[in-house]
Each structure stands twice: as structure tokens, then as C-alpha cells.
Amino acid sequence: MLTVGDGNRQSRKEDSHLLHFVSEGMFVVSLDAQRTGNSKEKLGGHAGLLKGYSVLLAKAPLLKMETLGIRSEDVQTTTTNTPVGIFLVVYYISNYVFRFLCQILGRFNRARAAQLTLPHFISQTPLFMPVGTKGAIKGLTTSQLEEIGCQIILGNTYHLELQPTSELIDELGGLHKFMNWPRALLTDSGGFQMVSLLHLADITENGVTFQSPVDGKPMLLTPEESIQIQNRIGADIIMALDDVVRTTITGPRIEEAMYRTLRWIDRCIAAHKRPNEQNLFGIVQGGLDPVLRDICVKGLVERNLPGYAIGGLSGGEDKDSFWRVVAQCTAALPEDKPRYVMGVGYPLDIVVCSALGADMYDCVYPTRTARFGSALVPEGILKLTHRAMADDTRPVDTTCGCMVCKTYTRAYIHCLVTKDAMGSQLLSYHNLYYMLKLSRDLHSSIIEGRLPEYVCLFLCLDFAFYLLSVLFHWFVCGFLQKMFPKGDVPEWVCNAMEVAGIDISSCCAPFSSSQD
């Protein structure tokens, strides 16, 4: 049984850890440490989590056990006097793992800044999740990812099952331990491979059969098998298997996929054996058809899932259709559950979707573009492969505080990206830092009520840079690609911001209806 002193007593090792969090204005939910593979005598950890503990901000409303899904028979409660203004409740929960909690910390019209309490980490939204398909972000260590503020890494069920297999991962203690990642994980269901590996896939009501790109053998992925694999992998958030089709497809296949997705979610729920440890998200499908999207949203909400994803986008549809689907879905999804727009990784798209009320995003874009020698900067894209970089002694981004920009010049990275893999590793570090800082800036701007100013600054940087670049175009050889090559804010952005209740007319007036 853990007890907590009055703010001054630190007579026990456990108390010293708990009192640290009391002094920081938090209350602590104590879990059975054995569930996390650590004895209580070996406590320690990192921001948001002591091994064996989950931590919540005390400024949050005091949560009832029922809100957390905790049964009274599982709990012993101790209350003590604590520093002024802080009421501390410690739950000692035998054989129980803290389940998902989404708490809205701030709003601006439709935009939300939330706190997600997961078994391994407390995350702040909006948030971007780097993609570690096979349990690793190419070129970066988990320590580096912690260093730049990564909160959740995405892994892929299909690829992890192919190699090294979920059975081996489970035997070795789960994916967190396998890849030495102490923070949160999300695993995709494998459904995206229906699109990316369509030439190797055969989709039926039973599931999807893939031809393994490793050995050519067939692999049947059913909703039940997808969940069983993800249960073995052990991610904090797991995704239901959905029937994925490209949004550019029209006709009855879209409707078929939407209704099949609803049928499959019930099979996923029935197969899920770790609901108190892993949070199952359903995925909204329906292509670009608002009627089908509405049916799917309502069907998923009726099942009262821990969270919801908006799927089937970023597959070649025009931007006007893209934002309208996001706006429709976020307006219909529950306020107290997270909303995850899958496959979104362009900075502008994340800003727009966050303004419309989305919370979570993932994409390979930051690391993939790094491998092509390009860096994300406030003005758009900086191509380090261009010969104009050869003698440029400036950092990649003069406004960036990452290790790469503090340490290396454009000239040095230019030399590396054309000859050495280290160049793409450094750019991957910078690009992910940029995306994670974008997420933090969105979070703070919503909390502080200055989202319109932040959005205008974000957009005006690109527009103002264009005006300057016209003057210097012939000198810089066009190596910097502008986000808005015609110097305008695309009409789709203006329309989306109007729906989001954010006035951008004071900073950048639109000049065309570009969809790019």
C-alpha cells in the first residue's frame, strides 16, 4: 500500500517520487508495478510516467473512479493533506492498467487542445506521430526521438507480423521493451496495405489475403487476426481493421467498403482481449460521399469506442474535398474522444485540420523528404541538394532550436546528402523536430486563445517569403520551393478557416482557387 505525506515528509522511496509530483501540481494514480515489468523498489522514469504510475495534472477536474472505468473493488484509496490548492488522491490498483482518458484543456471555436492519458505516456494534442513501420524511425534512435519531444510512435501491424513476428515481440516483452521506447505506441491495423499493396491483396468479407513481399507466401489478415497481433505487440492505441479504398474511386465499391468497415468493427471489438490496457479506435470510411461518411460516423459512435480515426484520405483527392470530409467528421464525432486524421503530414494540412477540430496525425513525409535531401522550414521546403547550398554557412533554419540547426551548416549537410547517409539522418532529425514543434505551437496557441494570430503568422510567412523570393529568384537559382508558388493563400484554406471560425483576411488575401 502506498501512502503520501503532507508535502514535507519523504520517509519512503515511493513517497519521494509521489511528493515530487505533488509539488509540481499533479495527482498520481498508482498502478500495480508488476504490470509494467518493474518492481516498486526500482521506480524511476520520465516526464508523464513513473514506471508503475500514471500522472495527471492537478489542475484537471478531480476524476471519479467511474470516469476512469475503475471498479471500486479494485481500488484502495488514500487521501492526505498536501500543499495548498492541491488535493491528492492515490489509487492503488491491483492488476489494473490505467485506461485511456481524453481531457480537453482549451478550445478556440472548433479547435481543441487536449491531454491524452495512455498507459505509457501522457500526450498533448494536437500531436504528430512519426511512422516507425517496422518498430524504428529510419536513421534515428529512440533516445533522439525522446530528445525532440516525440510522444507517440506509429508501427504497422502487417510489417511487424511479417518480421520479426508478433509472437517474438510478445515473447521479448512487447514492442515497447523490444524497441526500448518508454512512451506511447500506436499500431495501424494493416488495412492501409490494401491500397499500398493492392497488387498483392485479395479482399473478401472474411478479411484480406496478402502475398508476402518477403517470401511470396499468402497471409490472411482477418479483423480477429489483426487485433490478436496488436494485442501481442502491446501498443497503447490499436486500430480496427477497415476496408480501405482510394478516395479517387467512385461507384459501389466505396459503399461496400464503408458497410464492411462497420461489420468488421464488431468483429474487432469481440476479438479484443486487452480493452483495459489497449485502446481500440474505429476508422471512419465512406470516400468523398457525405452520406456514407455520416452513416459510418454514426455507426462507430454507437459502439462507444475510446477514439476515432478519419481514414481514406490523403490518397489523391483534391484539397477542397479533403478538408470538407475532415470538417464533417470532426463535427459529428464525440467531444470527449480523440480524433485522428490518418496519413496527414503536410504542415499546412495539420494546421487546417487542427483548426477544424482534429487531434492526431501521422505520415512518413518528414522522414521521406529528408531522405531526398530536403528540409522543412517556415517558408516551405529547403532543398539541400542544390548546388547553391555548397558554400552556404547558415544553419538549415535560422529560427530552429534543434541540434542540427545549432551544430551544422547548410554547406556541410549539402556535402553529406550527396555522399553520405548521415545527411538524411540529420535532416530526419530536423524535420521531425519541426513537425513536433508545430504540434506544440498549435497546442499552446489554442490554450492561450491566440490561434488566429498563429495561423496568420504561419500563412503570412509563406506569402511574404514569396514576395522576397521574386526579387532574388535568379540569385538563389530557385532552390527554395514555396508553399504557395503564386503568392496566394489557396481558396480551400480560406474556406476551411471560415468554417473553423478563423479570420485570415487580415494577413493574407486569397488570389486564386488553387487546390494544390
Automatic annotation (TrEMBL):
Residues at which substrate binds: 188-192, 242, 285, 312
Enzyme Commission (EC) number: 2.4.2.64
Locations listed in the record: Cytoplasm
Molecular-function GO terms, alphabetical: metal ion binding; tRNA-guanosine(34) queuine transglycosylase activity
Names of the cofactor(s): Zn(2+)
Span list, region RNA binding: 343-349, 367-371
Chain ranges of the tRNA-guanine(15) transglycosylase-like domain: 110-458
Homology family: Belongs to the queuine tRNA-ribosyltransferase family.
Protein name per its UniProtKB record: Queuine tRNA-ribosyltransferase catalytic subunit 1
Organism: Rhododendron griersonianum
